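Re: beginner question about structure tokens

> Can someone show what the tokenized structure looks like for a real chain? I only ever see the sequence side.

Sure, here's an example I had lying around. Input first:
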Amino acid sequence: MGRISDLVEELQGPANDLVLAAGRAGLLPRITSTIRSNSEQRRLYNRYLAGQAGYPVAPPGYSAHEYGLAFDMVVSPMEALADVGYTWQQWGGGWNGADAVHFELPGASEYAREQGRLLEVQSDSAGATAAGFITTATDFYLGSNVAGLLKLIPGLSKNEALTVLSSPYESFQQWLISSIKLPSFR
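And the corresponding structure tokens:
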């Protein structure tokens, strides 16, 4: 599932507006996915490869969902999804009928593909580390390699490092959101 509040701040307002607009149109909108951990993306991608998914799924590291830049939404009747997607596009958002449930910030998929190409996960004694880049904020939240988080945010003072260790998810999310550069929405 997921909550709109889990998305990057720039996407939260427009996503909420789209849900409200679809609701006013009587389409019974339901958000089915927002931000995903790398492991959740891997599970969905494996289902897709096995032919068990109705929509395309990006490989782990390459999904806009992993960066909080996209959400999936269904409506009833599903045939109305094209109209909802058209509305999203008119508002400046990214939408493609081939993955009709997927709504994103403009340029989010391109950004995620670039991050996926840059992300070179290596294994070391501390577990998975990203060569100068990120794994995902939600993986840290779930407890995987919190100490590795300190390697990903360069130039921390001792006090800043202690703050990161005391609230890793919030610290990493704040750093991640501040480092994302996307075209403006609307």
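Each token stands for a local structural state, so reading them left to right follows the chain. The two ends are 26 Å apart (CA to CA).
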